Amino acid sequence: MIMQFLHKSFSVLLALLVMFSTVSFTIEKHFCGDVLVDVSVFTEAQKCIMGAFETDQQTIRKKICCKDEVNVIQGQDNLRLTSFEDFNFQQQLFIASFTYTFISVSQGLAEHVIPHKNYSPPHLVADIQVLDQVFII
Asked: Disulfide engineering: 86 pairs with which of 7, 60, 82, 124, CB 3.0-4.6 Å?
């Protein structure tokens, strides 16, 4: 039962490791001046509202005042699949012996067998020590 639990938990852990190592995402930050206004992951950051922009001077002022910072975190996109035959002989020997010892050590010992557990002793008809008059002094 413990081996099944460990096997399933390691399988889930490895699947999550592969998934998180291959995912890519973007972190976008929007600054107004030196103040951080919004941070978003996967979507575009919300821009600050500086009032109605009626003239070109205010638009230029907004472009100078505000700035966006985009961090792209790239995931791994090339996974290499190897088979047991790709290893050299010493590596194959090590993997096989490690697997064999791990499996044999982790198997539980057999239950302790008591051969006389269900055996009932014979009925005593007479006390033999009294009949033979053998007493411990």
From this structure: 82
